[in-house]
Amino acid sequence: MKISWDKQYLKYSLYAFLTIALAIVFSHIVKYLGVFLVWGGGMFGVLGNILSPFIIGVSIAYLLNSSVRFFGEKVFVKMKTFKKKERLRRNMSIMTTYLIVISFVLSITIYVVPQIAANMRDIALRTPEYVSFSTEAVNDLIISIEQKTGYDVKAQIDPMINNIVERTSEIVEHIVNNLILGIAAITSGVLNAILGLVIAFYLLQDKDSIKKWILKFMKILFKSNTVEKLENFGREVDNVFTKFLIGRALDSFIIGCICFVGLSIINVRYALLLSIIIGITNMIPYFGPFIGAVPVIIITLFDSPISAMWTALFILALQQFDGLYLGPKIMGDSVGVRPFWIIFSVVVGGKLFGVIGMFLGVPVIAIILSLVNKFMDKQMEQKSSS
């Protein structure tokens, strides 16, 4: 007896079976996704701890590469002793860069860090005074409002104030309890940084041979045309990131120095600490100056409302100077991204990766837009030629 199969029926049955199977698989993936993420996060955490000196070394080598290249191509190449000795010239460039960086770090450690530590210790000791001052100011405001309106504002606001005080106490206690762990982490970080400096030295020394090895490996995997495109893309990425990082760091350093001089003239307490906050947050485009200004003004307000007013006006003027003159003068059109995309990249990067995402979002969006524009131009050329 010959069995006749309905092909249409079999096709729909197969579709139904695949749909049900995929739904079951998806439900199991969702069910155990948390376990997978925890396991994967743990594995990445362990791997990150093991490879952290190498990650730090690669980062240091990348950041110092521009300086090494500058000394090699602009300074030592003009000296007869090093002109025809490329290896010696590179070693001298690396050692000169290391000497400058280590001198700068030691200067910061000897002269700046103790003052910052003293300022932070003083702020911690004066925190109860700040809390008391704030409480008295709020109570005076509540009494004034109640006298004018006759409404019992205190009963509504007291629970909120008590909650804020309790949370503040918990935060301070948490900081004190984790101080030893923080010192241990700093010690571990210093050791990793030293190893990273050693690794970075050899990476910078063997940069050309490493680059040749990577290109040879890529030629085994891809066609020559693809390798050339990837090499051009890597060169473009390096150009965007280098210009942005160096330009932003120089701009923020100058702004921090100007801020320190200005706050010292105004006679603001903790001028050095507040200037460092302004300089560091200035690394974040657009939002950075506002993020840094808020804690600076609040800290100054506790010490002196008049000083806080002058500080706010000075920071506003400094931001205008940076946005209208200094920033464009140093950075120019380094990333070639319109303000809308800069704001977009900062917001999205901050949501996804925090402060690092806010900072690195701009060069990343610049590279993405460059790729999209090239793809669109290519498509337009193909349409116009067809």
What features would you describe in this structure?
- The protein has 386 residues and is mostly helical.
- It folds into 2 domains: 54-205, no CATH class; 207-380, no CATH class.
- It has helices at 7-75, 80-83, 86-149, 153-177, 179-205, 207-221, 224-266, 271-281, 288-303, 305-331, 339-385.
- Helix 7 (224-266) runs antiparallel to helix 11 (339-385) and helix 8 runs antiparallel to helix 9.
- The protein is globular.
- The model is unreliable at 1-5 (pLDDT under 50).
Question: What is this structure's SSE topology?
Answer:
Elements: H1 7-75, H2 80-83, H3 86-149, H4 153-177, H5 179-205, H6 207-221, H7 224-266, H8 271-281, H9 288-303, H10 305-331, H11 339-385
Summarize the structure.
By secondary structure, the protein is an all-alpha fold. It has helices at about 5-75, 80-85, 85-150, 155-175, 180-205, 205-220, 225-265, 270-280, 290-305, 305-330, 340-385. The protein has 11 helices and no strands.
